[in-house]
Design goal:
Layout: H1 6-31, H2 34-48, H3 59-82, E1 95-96, H4 103-107, H5 115-121, H6 126-138, H7 142-149, H8 153-170, H9 178-194, H10 197-203, E2 204-213, E3 225-226, H11 228-242, E4 250-254, E5 257-262, E6 265-266, E7 272-273, E8 276-283, E9 286-293
Parallel strand pairs: 2-9
Antiparallel strand pairs: 1-4, 2-3, 4-5, 5-8, 6-7, 8-9
């Protein structure tokens, strides 16, 4: 292939950057892994640099299908790995600052990237997930989806239809208003650290589910916990073990929602506290789901303390 001119490469890179946020969103929805999403986007860039862009009718559409194919391969491999995963599996959380303006920060503003919505996607087969994401989130034609999946157009339609029914049955709650999220998180931190069972139960939906992802590398519930009393007992048990004060919780943005971050630390008694990120889903003014990620492999990009969204201590 002829050597690509510097000016053409720069123009191509500029064109690609226009679509990066979109591509990260596509890949992350499909894989649930930020690392896999970024790898897929980088591979798409390499492939774009090797083709004659003048022959592409729609660069964005071409990149979308390329990222989807790579994401599908990653997802199929991940499904096999997750069969050996210790405990529940949650998507890798994306932590951003409110003022950030980068592809990740822009991508997670989308309601479909909140943790509650991504957890529902984990119930789909790889083919259903790709078909649903591409068609319902990005209106990709079924002919192109069929090409990505290597199936007929009718089969692609069926994959999307089955996925749609699963998502509708799961009914993840929409993103709550920021003020409501803040009120509930602040009250949660106070109730947990003060050991107030009654106050904690009042914050939880009667059918609340608590899902912890430790991956066998950090302490977490080995199964989803259901019901306000079971969830409250578990949370208060953790509080008694680690004896953290309310000041140990830092407010962060997790997939566009307000969440809480606890940094790895040693307590005064010498007990090691693992880093953890928690984010909630809200229904009817109370917490209907609490997602807690403590697997260190999924917490490699924590913001520095000085960069916390609502920190006023350094001002």
């Amino acid at each position: 292939m002829a050597e690509v001119s510097t000016s053409r490469t720069e123009d191509l890179a500029t064109e690609f950057e226009r679509h990066r946020s979109h591509l990260v969103g596509v890949a992350y929805r499909i894989t649930g892994s930020l690392a896999d999403a970024e790898d897929a986007v980088q591979e798409a860039w390499l492939r774009l640099s090797r083709v004659n862009v003048a022959e592409l009718h729609d660069v964005r559409a071409w990149l979308t299908t390329v990222v989807a194919r790579i994401g599908l391969d990653r997802l199929r491999s991940a499904v096999v790995r997750r069969e050996r995963y210790v405990g529940p599996w949650l998507p890798e959380p994306i932590l951003t600052a409110p003022e950030a303006d980068d592809p990740l920060a822009r991508a997670v503003l989308d309601d479909d990237l909140r943790m509650a919505a991504l957890v529902v996607l984990e119930r789909l087969s790889p083919e259903q997930r790709v078909a649903f994401v591409l068609h319902d989130a990005f209106t990709v034609p079924f002919a192109e989806i069929a090409s990505v999946l290597g199936c007929s157009v009718e089969a692609a339609r069926q994959h999307a239809s089955r996925a749609r029914r699963t998502v509708a049955d799961s009914d993840p709650p929409p993103r709550a208003a920021t003020a409501e999220q803040q009120r509930l998180l602040d009250a949660l931190a106070v109730a947990v650290t003060s050991g107030d069972m009654d106050a904690l139960v009042r914050l939880l939906h009667p059918e609340v589910v608590v899902i912890g992802d430790g991956g066998g590398k950090a302490p977490a519930a080995g199964r989803p916990l259901r019901g306000a009393r079971e969830a409250a007992n578990f949370l208060l048990g953790l509080a008694r073990i680690y004896r953290l004060g309310a000041g140990a919780f830092e407010r962060v943005l997790v997939n566009g929602d307000l969440g809480l971050l606890v940094r790895a630390q040693l307590t005064e008694s010498g007990r090691e506290v693992p880093a953890g990120v928690s984010v909630t889903a809200v229904r009817d003014g109370v917490i209907v789901a609490l997602y807690n990620v403590v697997n260190p492999d999924k917490l490699t990009r924590l913001p520095p303390p000085a960069a916390q969204p609502d920190s006023r201590s350094s001002r």
